[in-house]
């Protein structure tokens, strides 16, 4: 499609960082040097270390769907997600919420300042050809 590399992001899990050997760091730096962004997936569900956010060059923090699932009715989930959003923004990171399935969840995330959202509210999982067709029609990226 002729998209610039800065249009792409590679997603990594906390587990990759937990066992980060020099090769992983080198590969991530190579991606960043080439313009590819890095997203930390499922943040808060594994052996989270806030040091990862300082040590590695991360562009996006992805809030796991387990915190989004009941964000509109569970004050604890809401507090955790809001805290992640504030912390990420203070560190200069963008935030993506995973598993957004209804307008109420999106509204809570929008109010909290979440940058992006993904989930069935916007689209079901698509085969590559259907996704390409969706992009060609100009489907805008989902924003909170």
Structure report:
The chain is α/β, with parallel strands linked by helices. It has a single domain, classed as TIM Barrel (Alpha-Beta Barrel), CATH 3.20.20. Helices cover 43% and strands 15% of the residues. The chain is built from seven helices and five strands; from the N terminus they run E-H-H-E-H-E-H-H-E-H-E-H. Strands 1-2-3-4-5 form a five-stranded parallel beta sheet. Helix 6 links the parallel strand 4 and strand 5. The radius of gyration is 16 Å and the shape is globular.
Q: How are the secondary structure elements laid out?
A:
Elements (H helix, E strand, L loop, with lengths): L8 E5 H5 L3 H12 L3 E7 L6 H6 L4 E4 L1 H4 L6 H16 L3 E4 L5 H10 L3 E2 L10 H9 L8
Organism: Noviherbaspirillum album
Pfam family, one: EAL
Protein name: EAL domain-containing protein
Question: What's a concise summary of this model?
Answer:
The chain has 144 residues and is α/β, with parallel strands linked by helices.
List keywords for this structure.
144 residues, alpha/beta, TIM Barrel, 7 helices, 15% strand, globular
Strand order of the largest sheet: 1-2-3-4-5
Query: Which fold does the CATH topology refer to?
Result: TIM Barrel
| Number of DSSP strand runs | 5
Question: Which structural category do the helix and sheet elements fall into?
Answer: alpha/beta
Radius of gyration: 16 Å
Q: Spans of 5+ residues with little confidence (pLDDT < 50)?
A: none
- The geometry reads as globular
Q: State the CATH superfamily name.
A: EAL domain
């Amino acid at each position: 499609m002729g998209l610039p590399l800065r249009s792409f992001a590679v997603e990594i899990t906390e587990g990759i960082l937990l066992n980060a050997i020099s090769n992983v760091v080198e590969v991530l730096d190579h991606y960043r040097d080439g313009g590819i962004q890095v997203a930390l997936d499922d943040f808060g569900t594994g052996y989270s270390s806030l040091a990862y956010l300082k040590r590695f060059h991360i562009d996006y923090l992805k809030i796991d769907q387990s915190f989004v699932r009941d964000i509109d009715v569970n004050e604890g989930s809401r507090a955790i997600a809001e805290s992640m959003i504030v912390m990420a923004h203070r560190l200069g990171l963008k935030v993506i919420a995973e598993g957004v399935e209804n307008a109420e969840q999106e509204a809570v995330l929008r109010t909290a300042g979440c940058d992006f959202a993904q989930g069935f509210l916007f689209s079901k999982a698509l085969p590559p050809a259907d996704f390409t067709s969706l992009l060609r029609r100009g489907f805008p990226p989902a924003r909170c």
